[in-house]
Amino acid sequence: MDSAEPTSSSMQTAPRAARRAVGEALDEYFELDPAFVEDVAAALRTGDRDRVRGMVGELHYADMADLLERLDQEDRRLLVDAIRESFNPDVLPELATEVRDEVMDALGFEDLAYALRELDSDDAVYVAGKLDPAEREQLLARMPPDSRKLIEQGLAYGESSAGRLAQRELVAVPAYWTVGETIDFLRSGRKTPEKFYAVFVVDPRHRPIGVVELHRVLKAKRPEFMRDLIDPEIDLIPTDMDREEVAYLFRQRDLAAAPVVDKSGRLIGQITIDDVVDIIEEEAGADILKMAGVRAEEDASLYRNIMSTAQSRFIWLVINLATAFLAASVIGVFEDSIAKLSALAVLMPICASMGGNAGTQTLATVIRSLATRELNAGNVFRVAWKEFFIGTINGFLFAFITGIFAFVWFKDILLGVVIGLAMITNMVAASLSGMAIPVVLEKMGADPADSAVVFLTTVTDCVGFFTFLGLATWILL
Questions:
Q1: Which domain does 133 fall in, by range?
Q2: How many structural domains comprise the chain?
Q3: Contact call for residues 288 and 265 (beta carbons, < 8 A)
Q4: What is the pLDDT of residues 299-357, one digit of tens each?
Q5: Pick from 110, 274, 20: which is nearest to 87 by CA?
Q6: Same domain assignment for residues 20 and 119
């Protein structure tokens, strides 16, 4: 009898065959092969659409999005035209904003309306929300009433709210249903989403009374009632909850899906873990960019044109210039001292630079702790003391190192003492500032990631220059 088990060689052959099916488009790390991108671009320019469709036909929608982003503007248009009839709508949410705009323009309103109709409601709302109001109205006018209603309901909520994020497709059953009835309903495919992780049990007013994870439904016996399987510790998400709060709730409770309810408590949708992963990635990236004075949605994009990117970054550079002049004014107070002892001009950037780096380390840690709720009113003073001692320890260590180097370099032991004392002072100030600035900004209702770096740099530069030059003037001159 022939064995039904695959042989070792057949198991190895299958992945190779799959790679050939997609034109060996991916390298071993699931990224697009640059040679593949060049081949697609070459085929597009020669007008060989059949070859193009054969090369990209089996690509995953995320890889197709990467391909569109790597092509230039004209090649993107040609690729969209080539695959128009088989265009996968799931590509749209994966694209960078500027590239998505180009792809949507290439598709046109009719094909775009069809694409949005095929997307999950949360993705359709996300894509439609990126359009100008006039374009959005033209698009919605071409959609079926049911699809249009779902998108308009989502767009009625704030951009960062749970109501905007919620997916309207879900599985909700009454409490009196049995497991068998629920499974039969799921198998029927009537009004069930393409992917789901939980079944929501609702009362006659369509208010959720519990959640049953899918694995519990499958393990239970058919005669059991759904009301007997529900988890009473249900986490309801109001439509006006901020997306960062949603991500925090999922992380704290290890949720895979959670119900979203309106003000009356009625179930209007669900949020799933795949959406939360996107939120965490976007918010983390946005905070990193804000710390550098970059507005994440706009000028961070690699695809935005040069002039608009330069214009949007100008304001932060103006603010940094103002703080630089403030630090320069501190140096100007000690102009005569610098003129008398040129070593001061050589060494003073070291103190300010070390303070800035130490403060940035503390700042990044505190901003992350605020975002994850690890830092709160109950432990803020304990953390402040910790940062004070860290700054003091590192201050003394680097005071010794820089003092030795200054003495060896300039053969002046007092100069080594001066920079050592300045180093201790500035590193302690940097650690405390890196702790205090984001906490104060959050108390004031501002985003610490947005402007904390500017304030921190000002503090470390001014304290570093003033301490070093002031001590030098007092001790050496």
A1: 8-165
A2: 3
A3: no
A4: 445 556 666 666 666 676 677 677 778 877 888 888 788 777 788 888 888 888 898 88
A5: 110
A6: yes
